[in-house]
């Protein structure tokens, strides 16, 4: 073995800290009970009208559903009842998040990876993958385009698992992104919240990420089904350890990172099982830490270069089932943010909005270095998979505005301590809505003035007028202060929030 592979082997062998699994399992099994979940799926019959009514009432009261109730929703076949559930899902979203939608951009910082996930274009055994990790200068360029030209305020930064993308690199790259400040038409643009999609980390490493000010920490379990997990992730790899991954969020909470994002990669196993897995994971976090997931993601398996699984999996999820799973997750974990990405087509993204999605990406480029190099087209050897929707942020915001939705660039929550349990309680009781409404209008004003095309501005002004009118009527006590901030923003001041 040469020096390089020896040091890589050593690095890999130190990744998993068994003590930080046993801390939660006591050395035994984990909280995903495959047999019970399979039984629930196979033995639960279609619910009657009364049962559906009771379950929907619970969701509307912003209470997490039990696994049994979730299985009942998954068993609904009647088309009218399904349509009723879709309407209820949207009502829950409106109750918790009103007409707001949040946008972000993914930023892939490196695609080196020691793992060999069968479905991923970045896996170590993909010989054609062109590997790259962004330098500080390249990160500044990418963040500069995102914050200064497109107008994003939130990013999700994505890392492979490799010494080149280790915790020190993560810290440096996040600090670099927060340091970018670009002049815009009337003010300046900055990335104000960096969410992280990274491999499972130790508590010590997560403390370091908390200290640089990350937003949400996301780790997708990929599949909750133990034996499928084993097949997809070779056992000699770091990712081969199911429990190290499953308890990532426990470690995050113990490190003081209390906005966490769950997810499953839909298409590896029965989608209904994965829905129960996500709900079971939410229960576990609520029970242990008093807080559930800040967001849930449900990427669908996309074709990836040199990956047979992505093309042949018998569990690939069709559009109809995909929309159903969105509805059921919305109802089962009513307070959580729900993210749909540009993997999906414009049609599916549009339909998902009617079922309670709260966050989406736009102007997305997932090739490493793809934002500053506008000439680079989608290229399978440089990116993980191909995108289904390449529309710009401006186009998306216009569509939202035409549907009466306001795009919120608010990132105030985590900057003034409204995270974790605090935000969860505010969401459950509808109080977060007050701050969010005010901040959505202020940040949307900024974006319109700095970045909107004429057509999008016209649609956006109509939404702003309606929102301001509502604030005047519903929140008279804060209205004077709000309107003062609003006018100051119109005059070029930035980043004023409640
Ligand atoms: N390397 C880290 C990890 O695996 O946790 C984070 C980065 S990884 C690129 C982010 C996510 O991409 C994975 O968690 C997985 O769900 C998703 N992904 C991987 N291959 C995919 C594919 N072929 N289609 C859709 N999503 C995929
Ligand atoms: Fe690596 Fe993540 Fe891709 Fe797996 S999904 S190969 S861990 S980048």
Could you please describe the fold and organization of this structure?
With 498 residues, the chain is α/β, with parallel strands linked by helices. The chain has 2 domains: 3-28 and 88-419, Alpha-Beta Barrel (TIM Barrel), CATH 3.20.20.70; 432-490, no CATH class. Helices cover 49% and strands 9% of the residues. It is built from 22 helices and 11 strands. The strands form 2 sheets. Strands 1-2-5-6-7-8-9-10 form an 8-stranded parallel β-barrel, surrounded by 6 helices. Strands 3-4 form a two-stranded antiparallel sheet. The radius of gyration is 22 Å and the shape is globular. The N and C termini lie far apart (58 Å). The model has no long low-confidence stretch (mean pLDDT 92). Bound molecules: S-adenosylmethionine (SAM) and iron/sulfur cluster. Residues 119-120, 122, 158-161, 197-199, 219-220, 222, 265, 299, 301-302, 304, 310, 343, 384-385 line the site of S-adenosylmethionine.
Fold topology:
Blueprint lengths: L2 H11 L5 H7 L8 H10 L5 H12 L6 H8 L4 H19 L2 E11 L25 H15 L3 E6 L7 H12 L3 E2 L4 E2 L3 E5 L5 H9 L5 E2 L7 H7 L9 H5 L1 H7 L5 E4 L7 H19 L5 E3 L10 H5 L6 H14 L4 E4 L5 H8 L5 E3 L31 H10 L3 E3 L3 H4 L4 H10 L2 H20 L2 H21 L4 H12 L8
Parallel strand pairs: 1-2, 1-10, 1-11, 2-5, 5-6, 6-7, 7-8, 8-9, 9-10
Antiparallel strand pairs: 3-4
This protein binds S-adenosylmethionine (SAM) and iron/sulfur cluster.
The site of iron/sulfur cluster (SF4) has 9 residues, from loops.
